[in-house]
């Protein structure tokens, strides 16, 4: 009766928005953070389906194959699998998991990120100007559930989601990480800070950090040629949901890191250059309030470092400055963040 009980729930598709993953294979494992929109994506892409939520406390492990055959189910969505199961004959099936390490047989694994800027705009019901959309994006972040909320309610909603899905230790660790976003640090240093709040073994703390990575809440960007790294949240607005200490430059940097990682497999950082994309021979400066003259003063040092790293162009992302220049064979392209967020996949800034 456990599985049969789920058939009484009717899922409404009203108000669901398309994502950039506009088509899915017949059998897909959709992985992503809690509240990243996995269920909405699956519901949007299927008609006439059964939905089984294995995270429901009332769920009891049962025979999926018999359930599928008895009820003549063609399309099935399974949320947060927690036990082993065998499926019968289906036309389409989507499994949803917030665990990076989960896999199921030969299902094609698809990672669903939080919203990028273009998706954020499409989710908004208001006819804002480009500058208003960007301002809201910086305030509200990438969680689909927060798009229409006020900044205060978005922060409270994020807190609610984290409290429901994380342990006490994971939340304390996230609060420590919120103070280190975009700052060179190590898990060992974070552990020392954590001990000021609560006693925990080093091994357990390391497991805690790895768990946050596995839940798609945290990622690290490595130094280009040293064994060093910086932490970033997978939804950049989490920083302001976990700390009253504001640091716009780090939130700005986190936003750009996340948008880059939706396009490129790997990015790095350097002391002088915010982010480096080896595959594109590109360096990026996250300078919200810079201007062309300031960059010109730094161009000699920046161009030397760029050439050492094999970079032939540096993209300067600010809120209001656009320019083109070059120094010693290295191109400097200034572009507003708003423009770049729309064009980044085309690499057409040059």
Summarize the structure.
The chain has 350 residues and is α/β, with parallel strands linked by helices.
Descriptive tags:
single chain, 350 residues, alpha/beta, five-stranded parallel β-sheet, 13 helices, 13 strands, globular
| Strand segment count | 13
User: How helix-rich are the residues, as a percent range?
Assistant: 25-40%
Distance from N terminus to C terminus (CA atoms, Å) equals 61 Å
Category from helices, strands and their pairing: alpha/beta
Mean pLDDT: 93
Task: Describe the protein.
This protein is an alpha/beta fold. The chain contains 13 helices and 13 strands. It has helices spanning 2-5, 38-44, 64-70, 117-123, 130-140, 151-165, 168-178, 187-194, 202-214, 238-242, 248-261, 292-308, 337-343; strands spanning 27-31, 50-53, 75-79, 92-97, 108-111, 218-223, 229-233, 268-269, 275-277, 282-286, 313-318, 323-327, 330-336. The strands form three sheets. A five-stranded parallel sheet has the order 2-3-4-1-5, covered by helices on one side. Strands 9-10-11-13-12 form a five-stranded mixed sheet. Strands 7-6-8 form a three-stranded mixed sheet, with helices on both faces. β9 and β10 form a beta hairpin. α7 crosses α8 (187-194) and α7 (168-178) packs across α9 (202-214). The model has no long low-confidence stretch (mean pLDDT 93).
Compile the SSE list and pairings:
Elements: H1 2-5, E1 27-31, H2 38-44, E2 50-53, H3 64-70, E3 75-79, E4 92-97, E5 108-111, H4 117-123, H5 130-140, H6 151-165, H7 168-178, H8 187-194, H9 202-214, E6 218-223, E7 229-233, H10 238-242, H11 248-261, E8 268-269, E9 275-277, E10 282-286, H12 292-308, E11 313-318, E12 323-327, E13 330-336, H13 337-343
Parallel strand pairs: 1-4, 1-5, 2-3, 3-4, 6-8, 10-11, 11-13
Antiparallel strand pairs: 6-7, 9-10, 12-13
